[in-house]
Write a structure and sequence with these properties.
9 helices; globular
């Protein structure tokens, strides 16, 4: 039986992390059961779609039951901040990583100072003057993705944009969306991303 191991301290962020990880869990449980070991694993291009969509669905459901205006605003602001993080920050990180490999290809030593400078440069391109301060400069060191999975961060940006479109499809026709979405999960990595997304109305 599949399971997800998480810390939980009763905070809303813990519930959001749980939704994210359960999105992954549902995806992997379904596709690894429906596909062979060779085609079951989703591609990096789509691996974050179910997790990001699960977070958006959580916020949608919380908003449905919340009447307090301040709490509703906090939920909406949190969803916007997450989208900014996923689209802009992750895009900046992906561009930073490309810059790191360009420096490496030219034979430039990858010193902490150079990595810091490159990080700040790309973050300012995407986030403007909101990315300033000493804590921003070294934030690249908090992301292991660049070392463990090359060019993974673009998946968050791409998946967030896809998930936002899928939420719109879900709101328009929840029943039809549910069936197509479960089929998408079941297909795992058995087809190219464009073919997997086509039944969901994504070109």
């Amino acid at each position: 039986e599949p399971y997800v191991l998480l810390n939980h301290t009763g905070q809303l962020t813990d519930v959001q992390v749980m939704a994210h990880e359960l999105g992954h869990g549902l995806h992997l449980a379904r596709c690894l059961r429906a596909q062979s070991a060779h085609s079951g694993m989703p591609s990096f291009a789509l691996i974050e779609v179910p997790s990001t969509l699960a977070e958006l669905m959580l916020v949608d459901n919380l908003l449905d039951g919340e009447r307090d205006p301040a709490r509703r605003l906090a939920l909406q602001a949190g969803a916007i901040e997450t989208a900014v993080q996923n689209v802009f920050m992750c895009s900046a990180t992906a561009e930073w990583e490309r810059g790191v490999y360009r420096m490496k290809a030219m034979g430039t030593a990858l010193s902490v100072e150079r990595l810091n400078t490159l990080w700040l440069e790309h973050n300012r391109q995407y986030l403007g003057d909101s990315s300033c301060g000493d804590e921003i400069v070294t934030r690249w060191s908090a992301y292991p993705h660049a070392v463990l999975y090359r060019f993974y961060m673009y998946a968050y940006a791409f998946s967030c944009l896809l998930a936002l479109v899928l939420m719109r499809r879900r709101r328009h026709d929840p029943e039809a969306f549910a069936g197509r979405y479960l089929e998408f999960l079941d297909r795992g990595g058995s087809l190219p991303p464009a073919e997997l997304l086509a039944p969901l109305g994504i070109e």
